[in-house]
Design brief:
Layout lengths: L6 H6 L12 E3 L10 E4 L17 H7 L2 H17 L4 E2 L24 H16 L4 E7 L18 E4 L1 H8 L1 H8 L4 E4 L3 E2 L2 E2 L4 H11 L5 E4 L8 H5 L13 H9 L5 H17 L32 H10 L2 E5 L11 E6 L8 E3 L7 E3 L37 H12 L2 E5 L13 E8 L13 H11 L5 E7 L14 E6 L7 H9 L35 E4 L6 H8 L16 E9 L14 E2 L2 E2 L5 E11 L5 E10 L7 E10 L4 E9 H4 L1 E3 L4 E3 L4 E7 L7 E6 L1
Parallel strand pairs: 2-3, 3-4, 4-6, 5-7, 5-18, 6-9, 11-14, 11-15, 15-16, 16-17
Antiparallel strand pairs: 1-2, 7-8, 10-17, 12-13, 19-22, 20-21, 22-25, 23-24, 23-28, 26-27, 28-29
Helix pairs in contact: 2-11, 3-4, 3-11, 4-6, 11-14, 12-14
Length: 714
């Protein structure tokens, strides 16, 4: 097809156009060749800016689920709605930011603060999305770690995120590599500078690392309006500008015609785009681009149903498994034999409204009343409604939703207990006959700005006020990121705490299922909760250097989150991988097989395929253990494998498996370790090195609780 295109047609593929639809971006059709064009739309938690669609659990909830199969199904279910609405590309999943700034405003869109967990979930999401003929756009490449100074403003340049070579390979690039290996046909480059060059024009990162070292054969699209220059962006590896490429379109044609730019590169750009279209199967039977995406949903239009009833169980299960129970004392949960339940807090009700708004991204904004009327300025909480998702380009606009209050009212009617509500009061009094109290709070986050803090005094005070009057106080936090809890957690009457994260449209139904034990909590933290914000050290805040060329140096390497805490000897409040259940699991009988394969080779020798050198993925060892459910309830346990590589100062996640076990059931769980899993990046040789030495392996239910240990000499 590309061979039949004129130069102008090839260039036309490389930049967006404005069309009368609600797509985030459009590529024009080439009717004479049967190419219908492309519709690109947000986002990674569900299709927004349209009607008749669902709201899925957010990235942070995906990470908290630790469920690979559920993540695959979620990707397919989401993408199915995009397809039925005529959207060719789903702008997700997110693996950058990598949570290296704890207060980062967009951390919640990604699965985890750990590169391994984030990479596995991104790969599963990509596979799910593309299994139903929709393109995945893995983003934001690379170093999009803070919202502060992320774009140029006047004479001030965007921040330069400066990442050393070892940190790049072992941490920041890691999940992108997983996504490329999974077949992601698109990568979205980010707004900020990377090592003094804008990311979307960065030859080293795009041509050298992505298209060279990782063997990426798809196309690179800019984040919206991140094309700040002209032909140097095309030379630097960018293939498509969005929402347009006005800085290069006519200039690109002229440059080819006058011999200053090679037409072969234009052909390469066009080929990568058309190849992706063919690769996912959009050349046959795909709906017309943008058919279900009205320009403005409040105008008269034909409604195209995006939802499929069979996906409802996936949406609900995603909400359930994204909850993490971290405290449960005095047999508080599951709830039984209630006569009176009292509920408090601002994060229980459905937000007052959804607002159809026209802005640069054509989005629906989360009802402004729910965020104090501030859509672009950050607030710590959303005080007038529960959080189904976060804000910005990753926001969701579900057709229906179940808030915690809605679900609790229905449960009270079903079971016959009395439900007292003090949701609107700042200092409520508790009915003394209450068998239990639930306090709902949240932690809000939105793109374009970083979070102001990891806690807020208002919510902590509200919780303590209720706890002083109620012997069984359950706290439910809808948190768009890490939320510290030392302002209330040691109160003797705070007997249970659930991190609900951002559950999507089935929030209330999921919560009731967990509170009453119809579902057994199985989520685990995809991040570390510190006792104090200061425990995160230099990782806490975005870099705020003044001047016209702000700089942010990231040289922590792998030592972020739990690896930072282990290296520094800091005891967290709740460790990475932690989560309680209504049952008990026992680990035993660890075994290791290996070394296997070509372990005697220090360096990989294979050819470069999608994902890098092919022998990076060969098996070097297998670790196995037995997990038994010794408790009173059926449940699912996440067995976690950590590795201490010679010369490193902390162990790191290198395998996990979530298995459902009935009461008394045992299961043998295995973890396959690849050359990549056990290697370090050698900056001198510019290759992955499988070191000689003794590797230590740890298996258990969290990063801090690893009862099984073994070693392997290589």
């Amino acid at each position: 097809m590309v061979d039949q295109m004129t130069l102008e047609e090839k260039v036309g593929l490389t930049g967006g156009v404005s069309l009368p639809n609600g797509c985030s971006g459009n590529i024009a059709a080439i009717p004479r060749l049967g190419f219908p064009g492309l519709c690109l739309s947000d986002g990674g938690q569900g299709l927004r800016a349209t009607d008749a669609v669902s709201g899925f659990a957010s990235g942070i909830s995906v990470g908290a689920s630790w469920n690979k199969d559920l993540t695959l199904n979620r990707g397919a279910a989401m993408a199915g709605e995009f397809k039925r609405k005529g959207v060719n590309m789903l702008l997700g999943p997110v693996v950058g930011p990598a949570w290296s700034v704890v207060r980062g405003g967009r951390n919640w869109e990604a699965a985890s603060a750990d590169a391994y967990l984030s990479g596995v979930m991104a790969a599963q999401t990509v596979r799910g999305i593309q299994s139903v003929n929709v393109m995945a756009s893995t983003k934001h490449y690379i170093g999009n770690e803070q919202e502060l100074h992320r774009t140029p403003a006047g004479e001030t340049a965007a921040v330069s995120i400066n990442i050393d070579d070892k940190s790049m390979h072992e941490f920041f690039l890691w999940p992108f590599q997983d996504a490329v290996k999974a077949g992601s046909v698109n990568i979205m480059c980010s707004y900020q500078q990377l090592n003094q060059t804008y990311a979307c024009a960065n030859d080293k990162s795009q041509n050298g690392l992505l298209k060279g070292e990782l063997g990426f054969r798809g196309f690179v699209v800019s984040d919206w309006s991140a094309l700040y220059g002209g032909l140097e962006y095309a030379t630097g590896g960018l293939d498509m500008g969005m929402p347009n490429a006005s800085r290069w379109d006519k200039n690109l044609v002229q440059a080819v015609q006058n011999g200053s730019f090679a037409e072969s590169r234009v052909t390469d750009m066009a080929t990568r785009i058309i190849a992706a279209w063919y690769q996912v199967g959009q050349d046959k039977g795909f709906p017309r681009p943008g058919i279900g995406m009205p320009k403005l949903v409040t105008d008269s239009h034909t409604v195209f149903e995006g939802r499929d009833p069979k996906d409802r169980s996936t949406i609900l299960q995603g909400a359930i498994e994204g909850h993490v129970l971290v405290k449960n004392e005095k047999h508080t949960l599951p709830l039984r034999n209630l006569k009176t339940l009292s509920i408090f807090g601002y994060s229980a009700n459905t937000p007052p409204k959804w607002t159809a708004a026209e802005d640069i991204e054509g989005s629906w904004t989360y009802g402004k009343a729910a965020v104090l009327g501030l859509n672009e300025n950050q607030t710590a909480i959303a005080p007038l409604g529960t959080l189904f998702g976060g804000g910005g380009s990753g926001a969701i606009t579900p057709a229906t939703s179940s808030s915690p209050r809605d679900a609790l009212v229905a449960k009270a009617a079903e079971d016959g207990f009395t439900l007292y509500e003090g949701l609107g009061s700042n200092r409520p009094s508790v009915n003394p006959s209450s068998d239990a109290c639930i306090v709902f709070g949240n932690a809000w986050s939105i793109g374009r700005t970083d979070r102001p803090a990891l806690q807020d005094d208002y919510t902590d005070t509200l919780i303590r006020t209720i706890a002083s009057q109620c012997a069984r106080t359950i706290v439910v936090l809808h948190n768009a990121g890490i939320r510290t809890v030392d302002g209330f957690i040691d109160h003797p009457n705070v007997t249970a705490l659930l991190f609900a994260h951002l559950p999507g449209q089935q929030s209330g139904e999921a919560l009731v299922s967990l509170l009453w034990g119809m579902s057994n909590p199985s989520g685990k933290l995809p991040y570390t909760v510190a006792r104090s914000q200061s425990d995160y050290g230099a990782l806490l805040n975005p870099h705020t250097q003044d001047g016209k060329n702000p700089q942010a140096d990231f040289s922590a390497g792998i030592y972020t989150d739990y690896k930072y805490f282990e290296k520094k000897g800091i005891q967290p409040r709740y460790e990475f991988g932690f989560g309680l259940s209504y049952t008990r699991y026992h680990y035993s009988a660890i075994r290791i097989q290996g070394p296997l394969g070509n372990f005697h080779r220090k360096w990989p020798r294979g050819r470069v395929v999608s994902g890098g050198q092919e022998d990076l993925w060969e098996s070097i060892a297998t670790v196995s253990c037995t997990v038994v459910n010794r408790g009173p309830a059926d449940g699912a346990e996440v067995a976690q494998l950590y590795v201490r590589i010679p010369g490193t100062k902390a162990k790191q996640l290198r395998g996990f498996s979530k298995e459902f076990l009935r009461v008394g059931q045992s299961m043998r769980v295995s973890f396959v370790l690849t050359r990549r899993d056990l290697s370090v990046w050698d900056t001198g040789a510019q290759r992955w090195l499988l070191q000689r030495g003794r590797y230590k392996f740890y298996v258990g239910p969290s990063s801090a609780k690893v009862p099984l240990r073994t070693t392997l000499a290589i």
